[in-house]
Amino acid sequence: MFGKTLLMLGCLGSTLSAATAPAPYGPLPTTQQVNWLRMEWYAFVHFGLNTYTNREWGYGDESPKLFKPGHFDAETIVKTFKGAGMSGMIYTAKHHDGFCTWPTNSTTHNITLSPWKNGRGDVVKEFAKACQKNDFAFGTYLSPWDRNCAEYGRPGYLKVYYKQIEELLTNYGPIFEIWFDGAMGGDGYYGGARQNRNIGKADTYYNYKQVVKNIRKLQPDCIIWGAAGRGDVTWGGSEKGFVKYPLWNAQGNKWLSLEGDTPINHRGWFWHPGQGGHVKTPEKLMEIYLASVGRGANLILNLAPDRDGRLDAADVASLEAFGKMRSKLLAVDYARGAEVKTDAVRGNDARFNGGQMTDGDIESYWCPEDGTTTPTAEIVLEKPATFDVVRLREQIRLGQRVEAFRVEAMVDGSWKTIVEPGKPGEVETQFNLRGGKGHTIGNQVMRWLSEPVTTNRLRLTITRAKACPCISEFSLLLMPGTEEVAPAAATVGGDVVLNSKGWTYSGFAADKAYLAFDGKSATMWSIGRTPSHFVVDMKKPQLVNGFAYLPRQDGKTQGMTSRYRVELSMDGRSWKNVAEGEFGNLRANPVEQVISFSPQKARYLRFFSTAALDGTGSSVAEMKIYGPAAK
Q1: H-helix or E-strand containing 49?
Q2: What share of the chain is helix, strand, coil (3-state, %, to 5)?
Q3: What is the pLDDT of residues 248-298, one digit of tens each?
Q4: Nearest residue to 442 (alpha-carbon basis) of 256, 566, 602
């Protein structure tokens, strides 16, 4: 089939002619980036003042005295992560509210003012020590935006910010990754000024060129996330965990890796009361894994300790179930040790023959001669195997080359295409995973077939490449099944969703207000003005102790309610303000947000949209009103 050039693994017992390795192509990853990509997935840990205020973004005026976990044990958390198969963790040492969870010399807004351990606590230190003790990588997140600091938005803040970076990279041992998000200012406390401060271009204001120099000097092996594109890793593009495919690491003349990020709980990045019924199932986590790691990126999965300092039991149960599912998926490679026949081998040199793809060594690789960009390899298994995941890797130390590939299987005596080659311009987003096409390979790609295949012969064809391909792995895996963990329920900390049947509405765009209570995220109450409000008549007095807000889910942000006020009334004339604040992080993570308050009797609820994203307009996709569960 492959003509006179066909070569078989085993026919080349020794090198027939010494061939030189191919020249590198395009931008190359650093050794640190290669090592980082091999980590695959690790934990994000959001734990700070927001844990105690039921917020995603603190305003900056929160008291450090709120931070008082009763049973925080960093080692238990680290062992949980490691036991699930994770390779490290990144802790949010400072979020946007500016509260530093270590005894910093850069600001008084830090953990020394917390009653926890009588002001002598250091969360960063405890996590770092636990990681070192358990041979687990430790990293840290440091928000560039600081809504507490009086100097934020001015030149004086850089001294504070650089000092915090120096402390974190000097006092806590090796840091495998430091995370800077893209927060660029806005309204905040700012030492009591309570202003809106816009910094313009983040790269200019924070001077990330200097930040990167400082980090390289302090910890050369530390991976830098973000830093306005000056770092080693960039955002995958959503907070749902997926990255777009095909994935190219080449950004101009630089190799820039991608990272998918998402919380394990639908409620958000920080812990929130009643989140136990909102955890993502192991099956969903597997989809996320395949949509990030399986597309050539890494995955950072967030688990948030509660106010007592412990991980949520439902989150842990789902994490551990997924960890077992992942381990089982990767445990057996049905192509390991398979015979490989190819139509091209570089210099007839055994070091570059097809067997390098099935030898279990991701450093070795099959490679044809320069100029050969569409080679073919036939993989012959020792016996028939059933599989539904095909995994490929390139030797990325030589650059990323492959643009498209095809995989075929011999079924009932004829070749059947099981991974169709991708066409130029096609893009996969989110979780359209099963039966996906073969585009880029890069660090690795996993294609989850639409159904299992049983065969002992397969054929890999590179259909497009920018240079001679260097394929280091061809694997065949079988996806295991598992029971769902902690299915979602309409409860919040034991509270119940009040039945909206028969309710009526008034206020702005009253004829659309029912769309916020119809149970359909695709419909919404909306009006082209801000501020605006609607009134809910629940028809009878009942106890109310919270509400849930879901922003618009159509991919647009204009008119997303970003600040709110909720008032209650018995008669529709006298109103009491029971909740007011901000819905944070809407652009990147437009998930349901739940606000709780002390139980109060009311017949009417008035919801105000006091500020919204992207100009004039207000909207609510879905709202739930909660009351205490009957005892």
Answers
A1: none
A2: 20, 35, 45
A3: 998 889 999 999 999 999 889 999 988 888 899 999 999 999 999 999 999
A4: 256
